[in-house]
Amino acid sequence: MAAPPGAGPAALRLAAAASWQVVRGRRVEHFPRVLEFLRSLRAAAPGLVRYRHHERLCMGLKAKSALLLIQG
């Protein structure tokens, strides 16, 4: 199966950089996009991020989102 157009290394780097900026800036409204990126990255390259690290990242982002939703 061929990769979709725009799914090359440059596009992944750009998405990773954007995700990093969202997390670093603590822009919680965009955390679901970061979670989706992490899931798609895990599916595309399973060995890139260790399972435990991936799950801890996802759990932390979900927890922060839920906490701010409850507070706000």
UniProtKB/TrEMBL annotation:
Domain TERF1-interacting nuclear factor 2 N-terminal: start-end pairs: 20-71
Pfam families documented for this protein: TINF2_N (PF14973)
GO term, biological process aspect, one: regulation of telomere maintenance via telomere lengthening
InterPro entries recorded: TINF2 (IPR039098), TINF2_N (IPR029400)
A GO-annotated cellular component: shelterin complex
Designated name of the protein: TERF1 interacting nuclear factor 2
Classification of source organism: Eukaryota, Metazoa, Chordata, Craniata, Vertebrata
Any one GO molecular-function label of the UniProt entry: telomeric DNA binding
